[in-house]
Specification:
Layout (H helix, E strand, L loop, with lengths): L5 E6 L6 H13 L4 E6 L13 E4 L8 H22 L3 E5 L1 H9 L5 E6 L9 H7 L2 E4 L2 H10 L5 E3 L6 H7 L6 H7 L5 E5 L8 H11 L7 E5 L5 H9 L6 E5 L5 H4 L4 E4 L8 H8 L4 E4 L5 H5 L13 E2 L4 E3 L15 H15 L1 H16 L3 H18 L1
Helix pairs in contact: 2-3, 3-4, 8-13, 11-14
Length: 392
């Protein structure tokens, strides 16, 4: 029987967000066989379910001003170090830059893991975090390699984000809101994407690409699921003449029932860490068209991702279509169309108009999603825990 370890997971909040969700999932998964303590800086607007896990709210959320922020960090470090000592923590694993900083600076006798889950995190405090962490945990192999090239790293590993494949497929069977259903029931194929209103998601590229597709397939619709007002994007859709066929659906606790009714998933991000939404869409059988951005899409959509290293080329990869990375700053001028947006539109059109290709990638999507299951994630993280606990 595996020895129960005392593990601390640290994350700023449990509101919406990719790494927050992965932290919550990891906590519940590890709690089945270990003593897990989940430390958050603030419980405000908690979204993710961590029932059954020892939850510790430091009640030290964000504060204004540079001096206030510095004092807050010092308080967090002191509190977390005290908890590590009191609870005899063996492994502490943090998610997000601020949590990583607190984790490495509060080291007591624990083995410190710093989770790097996006390229934005590679700019702030990276050298300090990697130098002090006992292990740097990346969410893609490309990211792990890039960090090793830039920084001093004691030890590193890649843990691909897990996907609750079976649970998502059950959730996909649930009913959807009437407003969403009315849009889905309109004639035509539905392209869907998920993400908050953030320039990094590149939704203006997607809207322009869909406008191009509609010239060949007039009934095509687009739905974007995620938090935000999207005023600029709504105006762009209006000026492109496709506003009636673009729905900004907002946040949904169960987006998987909506995904299940769509036809294609599209990803147009400038960068990603590991795009959870891409795997989740594949889990419910959606074929995907994604830009070949850093990082994640190539590793998800092709078995040997290094064969897709040229981000300026299109690849009809093993498990989905990879299109050239989209270039340029935010541009919501409707007449301004880049060649990369035209190429992305071609990928969408080809998938929607070729029944054989569509069926192939729909089947491959399900197959690939199964390889990112919770069981696989459990095996990989348990292996790292046992290695580091033996070594400490």
């Amino acid at each position: 029987m595996r020895e129960r370890r005392r593990i601390m997971l640290i994350v700023p909040m449990l509101h919406q967000g990719g790494f927050e969700r992965i932290c919550a999932m990891t906590a519940k998964l590890l709690n089945q066989e270990h003593e897990v303590y989940l430390v958050i800086f603030s419980s405000e607007d908690m979204l993710y379910d961590v029932s059954g896990v020892n939850l510790i709210d430091l009640q030290l959320g964000t504060v204004p001003g540079k001096l206030g922020k510095l004092c807050n960090i010092i308080k967090r470090i002191g509190r977390v170090r005290g908890l590590k000592k009191e609870l005899h923590i063996q492994v502490s694993y943090s998610f997000g830059t601020t949590a990583n900083l607190v984790n490495v600076l509060s080291k007591y006798k624990d083995t410190v893991w710093a989770g790097i889950r996006g390229y934005g995190a590679l700019e702030e405090h990276l050298e300090l975090i990697t130098k002090k962490a006992d292990r740097v945990v990346s969410c893609t192999r490309i990211m792990e390699r890039d960090i090793a090239e830039r920084c001093v790293v004691k030890s590193s590993a890649t843990l691909y984000n897990p996907c609750e494949v079976d649970r998502l497929r059950e959730l996909a069977k649930e009913p959807i809101p009437e407003k969403i259903k009315a849009f889905i029931d309109k004639p035509g194929k539905l392209i869907v994407s998920m993400g908050r209103e953030d320039d990094i998601k590149g939704f203006w590229h997607l809207i322009k690409s869909v406008a191009l597709v509609k010239k060949k397939l007039p009934d095509v619709k687009l739905m974007i699921i995620g938090d935000g007002e999207y005023k600029e994007y709504k105006q762009l859709a209006l000026e492109l003449g496709i506003a009636e066929d673009v729905l900004f659906a907002g946040v949904h606790k169960n987006p998987f029932a909506i995904l299940d009714k769509a036809d294609v998933y599209a990803l147009t991000s400038d960068t990603e860490g590991f795009p959870n939404a891409l795997i989740e869409a594949m889990a419910v059988g959606l074929p995907c068209v994604s830009v070949n951005c850093k990082t994640g899409p190539a590793e998800i959509l092709h078995q040997n991702y290094e064969e897709c290293s040229d981000a300026s080329k299109a690849y009809y990869a093993d498990y989905g279509i990879l299109m050239p990375a989209l270039k340029g700053n935010k541009d919501v001028v409707p007449d301004s169309i880049t060649c990369e947006e035209e190429q992305f539109a071609d990928g969408l059109y080809h998938l929607l108009s070729d029944a054989v290709l569509y069926e192939k990638y729909a089947k491959k999507a399900v197959q690939r999603a199964n390889e990112f299951s919770m069981d696989e994630y459990r095996r990989n993280i348990e292996k790292l825990i046992q290695e580091d606990c033996k070594r400490s």
